[in-house]
């Protein structure tokens, strides 16, 4: 005889509510699963509408997972999809009996007459799948939270990462087959071949983009230099080029400067008005007009600046995920790495920097965006004789930075060290110039690229030489003039700097070119 205070194995406590949570049926829509699969087998249009919405995991019933896998395989191979081909594919996969046999497949096709509303039905199935995923993740979080040996910040990061995957509608697989990956790689190569430009995000610096083909997704790029070399100026110039010129969303995390200071520097760069004039506000009438007109493009740019001081790597990842989800950012810049913290890390500073470096690379892979992190160099550069050009061994505090980064680059301005000429064959002057040194490039070549540095505007630009369109035209016509007596001065490209290089702010005669 059943005891009055026992219910099918559950001990009843009068002071507690009986916990029947484990007896709940997970969210599901089996009837809609049947309708969607039946519609896919009788109408090709139905396949096209939902094949990129659903995955086999989205189906609650195991038999339906096998049937969808068979349909997906036929779709990948561009084979006809109907009752017979799906049945044959299930036989090939040795899954026909697990799927209920031919009789069950026939029953699915008889449940529908067309693929009308199939997308709506598929999205309901997906919603049920997301609900089941949230329940699973929540249970894992609860279980991990009871484990006293686990770091709370690691738990928070893991929880947010899993939830981010759900918001993206992409519960990640633990592994992928070579067949799937080859297909993805081939598709990407085809997309790149159809593009007229480069495969990555352009920096706006021609020679650098030619070497890298743009900043590539999932890459961690380190830009290192001693103080005063222009690290912030360079990344701001790149952020401006990417967001204003190419309209690509950029997230800029500034741990050193306030956001208003950064935007003021960008306004200076955009309007060709010196930072000093903008700080004092002493502008002439025509300069106010210049400011109001030229700042409009900057106002519309998809640039997001966060100036949270002492930002932890956990907080940065959380903020970056939200920006990716809400604004679709395609580039992340961090100024600078050594000012970040690793919350909950009780080790020394070198271990902390190593952890931050690893997490930045993981973030780049997770969001599939390039991440540029600025870094300080050690004082060894200052004590070195000769050109004082930075080396990989000068990276400060951790060799893990070099290990984790896909690209390690340095900024070198000889002018800063009172070096008047470059140490090259031409002994060219260094005034108003900088060198962007690619010291490590995991997927490409190494090179030292010269850039123009405009100090009073706090910006970097392409260096005008014979590699530019104007320089090539001038050079070719100079050669023609040497061999053609009929060549006249009118045949040369304009020597007027206003025509050759665009409008110049005559108020800033000290701008180095």
Rg estimate, integer Å: 30 Å
- The end-to-end span amounts to 98 Å
Main CATH class of the largest domain: Alpha Beta
User: What low-confidence regions span 5 or more consecutive residues with pLDDT below 50?
Assistant: 1-21, 466-479, 487-513
Q: Summarize the amount of helix as a percent range.
A: 40-55%
| Strand neighbour order, sheet with most strands | 5-4-6-7-3-8-9-10-11
Helix/strand/pairing category: alpha/beta
State the CATH architecture of the largest domain: 3-Layer(aba) Sandwich
CATH 4th-level superfamily of the largest domain: P-loop containing nucleotide triphosphate hydrolases
Question: Within the CATH hierarchy, at the fold level, what is the topology of the largest domain?
Answer: Rossmann fold
The percentage of residues in β strands lies in 5-15%
Question: How many domains make up the 3D coordinates?
Answer: 2
The shape is elongated
The total of helices stands at 20
Find the count of extended strands (DSSP E, 2+ residues).
Answer: 11
Q: Major sheet: size, sense and barrel closure?
A: 9 strands, mixed
Provide tags for this entry.
Rossmann fold; 513 residues; two-stranded antiparallel sheet; DNAb Helicase, Chain A; alpha/beta; 20 helices; 2 domains; nine-stranded mixed β-sheet
Q: What is this structure's SSE topology?
A:
Layout: E1 6-7, E2 10-11, H1 30-42, H2 44-50, H3 62-76, H4 83-92, H5 101-110, H6 118-145, H7 152-167, H8 178-194, H9 206-212, E3 220-225, H10 231-245, E4 250-254, H11 259-271, H12 275-280, H13 285-294, H14 296-300, E5 303-306, H15 313-327, E6 331-335, H16 349-367, E7 371-376, H17 380-383, H18 400-404, E8 407-412, E9 433-441, E10 447-454, E11 459-462, H19 469-483, H20 497-501
Parallel strand pairs: 3-7, 3-8, 4-5, 4-6, 6-7
Antiparallel strand pairs: 1-2, 8-9, 9-10, 10-11
Helix pairs in contact: 1-2, 1-3, 1-5, 1-6, 3-4, 6-7, 7-15, 10-11, 15-16
């Amino acid at each position: 005889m059943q005891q009055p205070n026992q219910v099918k194995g559950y001990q009843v406590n009068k002071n507690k509510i009986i916990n029947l949570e484990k007896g709940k049926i997970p969210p599901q829509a089996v009837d809609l699963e049947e309708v969607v699969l039946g519609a896919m087998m009788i109408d090709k249009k139905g396949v096209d509408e939902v094949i990129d919405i659903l995955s086999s995991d989205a189906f609650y019933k195991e038999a339906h997972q096998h049937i969808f896998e068979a349909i997906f395989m036929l779709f990948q191979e561009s084979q006809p999809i109907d009752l017979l081909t799906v049945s044959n594919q299930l036989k090939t996969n040795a899954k026909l009996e697990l799927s209920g046999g031919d009789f069950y497949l026939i029953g699915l096709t008889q449940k529908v007459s067309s693929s009308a509303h199939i997308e709506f039905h598929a999205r309901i199935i997906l919603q049920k799948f997301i609900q089941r995923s949230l329940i699973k993740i929540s249970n894992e979080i609860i279980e991990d939270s009871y484990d006293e040996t686990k770091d709370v910040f690691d738990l928070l990061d893991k929880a947010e990462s899993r939830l981010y995957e759900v918001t993206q509608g992409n519960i990640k697989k633990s592994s992928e087959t070579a067949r799937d990956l080859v297909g993805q790689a081939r598709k990407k190569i085809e997309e790149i071949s159809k593009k007229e430009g480069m495969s990555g995000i352009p920096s706006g610096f021609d020679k650098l983009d030619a070497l890298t083909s743009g900043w590539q997704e999932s890459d961690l790029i380190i830009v290192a230099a001693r103080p005063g070399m222009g690290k912030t100026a360079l990344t701001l110039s790149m952020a401006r080029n990417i967001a204003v010129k190419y309209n690509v969303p950029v997230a800029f995390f500034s741990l050193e400067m306030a956001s208003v200071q950064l935007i003021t520097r960008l306004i200076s760069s955009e309007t060709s008005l010196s930072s000093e004039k903008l700080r004092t506000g002493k502008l002439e009438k025509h300069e106010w007009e210049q400011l109001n007109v030229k700042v409009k493009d900057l106002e519309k740019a998809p640039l997001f600046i966060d100036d949270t001081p002492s930002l932890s790597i956990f907080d940065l990842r959380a903020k970056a995920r939200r920006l990716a989800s809400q604004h679709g950012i395609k580039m992340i810049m961090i100024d600078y790495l050594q000012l970040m913290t690793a919350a909950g890390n009780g080790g020394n500073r070198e271990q902390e920097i190593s952890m931050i470096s690893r997490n930045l690379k993981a973030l780049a892979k997770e969001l599939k965006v390039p991440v540029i992190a600025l870094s300080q160099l050690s004082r060894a550069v200052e004590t070195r004789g000769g050109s004082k050009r930075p080396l990989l061994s000068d990276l400060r505090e951790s060799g893990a930075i070099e290990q984790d980064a896909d690209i390690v680059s340095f900024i070198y301005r000889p002018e800063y060290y009172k070096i008047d000429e470059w140490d090259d064959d031409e002994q060219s002057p260094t005034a108003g110039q900088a060198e962007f040194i690619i010291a490590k490039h995991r997927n490409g070549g190494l090179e030292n690229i010269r850039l123009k540095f405009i100090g009073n505007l706090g910006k970097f630009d392409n260096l005008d030489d014979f590699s530019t369109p104007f320089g090539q035209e001038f050079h070719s016509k100079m050669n023609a003039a040497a061999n053609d007596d009929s060549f006249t001065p009118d045949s040369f490209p304009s020597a007027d700097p206003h025509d050759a290089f665009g409008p110049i702010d005559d108020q800033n005669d000290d701008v180095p070119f």
